[in-house]
Specification:
Elements lengths: L2 E5 L8 H10 L6 E5 H4 L7 H9 L3 E7 L7 H10 L17 E7 L17 H4 L1 H9 L3 E2 L3 E3 L8 H16 L12
Parallel strand pairs: 1-2, 1-3, 3-4, 4-5, 4-6
Helix pairs in contact: 1-7
């Protein structure tokens, strides 16, 4: 099973967490391919054919990004809009994603308790990621439980970040598919 990690961080060189996550994942080139969108497309012009070939050649796609205003950075939305085209990703007789899974790996600046229905934001992480889960369902792909690092906005130590990177790699290397996304509401 080959995993494509689509990393979407507009300032990756400044990110201690996402940069460290990708360093850890690069230790597994046989299992994991990394595609860093802001590094590949600093001008915002996406090579659609190239991105489609990457998706075609992988069994699993993981969207890695920091939560920005409770959503993803804009280049991820652009990638979804431009790459997941009708008659390629979906449409009559199209089943490209039926045998694939889609997941997310996100960092949230606040603590886990803030991302609960009774917490500060009144929404849990599954609700915030539901547009991506719905996209997976629309493509007839499996949706897997996200990998989440809470408290990324706090002063995490290098050891804590290293442990999160190792946990993320383990998450990617051994996972279970959840083919039905259940809304927490």
């Amino acid at each position: 099973m080959k995993t494509l990690v689509i990393a979407v961080h507009p300032a990756l060189h400044e990110s201690r967490i996402h940069r460290r996550w990708l360093e850890e994942l690069r230790r597994y080139p046989e299992e994991i391919t990394i595609s860093s969108l802001y590094e590949k497309y600093p001008d915002g012009v996406i090579d659609i054919a190239r991105e489609q070939r990457l998706a075609e050649n992988h069994d699993r796609i993981v969207l890695q990004f920091p939560l920005y205003w409770f959503s993803s950075p804009p280049l991820l939305k652009q990638w979804l809009d431009e790459v997941l085209l009708e008659d390629w990703a979906y449409g009559k007789g199209i089943d490209l994603f039926a045998s694939k899974t889609i997941g997310a790996a996100v960092s949230g600046g606040s603590q886990e308790d803030d991302y609960r229905r009774e917490g500060r934001y009144r929404l849990d992480i599954h609700t915030l990621l539901s547009p991506l889960a719905t996209t997976a369902r629309y493509l007839e792909a499996g949706w897997e439980a996200p990998f989440v690092l809470y408290g990324a906005g706090s002063r995490m130590s290098d050891d804590e970040i290293a442990r999160s990177a190792e946990a993320y790699a383990r998450h990617l290397l051994s996972y279970k598919i959840n083919r039905s996304f259940a809304s927490p509401n």
